Amino acid sequence: MSETDSFIDEVTEEVRRDKLFAVFRKYGWIGVLAVLLIVGGAAWSEWQKVRARTAAEGFGDAVVAAMGIEDAGARVAALDAISTGGGGEPAVRRAVTQFLAADEALKAGDRAGALSRLEALATEAGLPDEYRQLARLKAVILAGASMEAAARDAALAELAQPGAPFRALAMEQQAVALMADGKTDEVVALARQVLQEPDATPGLQRRVAQLIVALGGDPDAG
Q1: Taking the alpha carbons of 199, 193, 131, 63 in that order, is the dihedral positive or negative?
Q2: Average pLDDT of the chain, as a whole number
Q3: Domain ranges of the chain
Q4: pLDDT tens column, 90-99
């Protein structure tokens, strides 16, 4: 290779290098930004996981401590005082404390307080639907005969819709309401439907079977 060719090659390589550096200077920040975003996103995700785990552990410890208090009224106060904020699902944690507080209020003789908590949960907009439906069902059961029949029937009819998470339990309560009205045949027919529900637990199936037998029916009849 002649000296002229070598010189041309060196100049060509230098030009290429200069162009490459120019591209890096112009667009290199994009690569740096991409790396920073990836690293920052991973760090943020990890921090969120740690925050949620810490909040869940703290919440669990607080609930255990509250439930360990001897007096039911004091347990209610302790449950109300638990912080449900932090990572994870604060609305669900609040629902858990309120369900427990309602049970403890009932044990303490505060039926109205327990019912009020359940009714509030049943209408809480930020709560997942299954929690609201559970609260509504528990409120209907707790209210019992004190609830207006039309309102009770409407609530149970909605809770017993196909696909509803507590359909079988709502149907059981419909049967109880029918029994109070003396509609024996309808009770037996509805109880048999409950036995066919795929979500009916063994305990629920046992209860409705006993109800059918008590009313003179046959649980195995079609």
Answers
A1: negative
A2: 84
A3: 1-146, 148-222
A4: 888 889 999 9
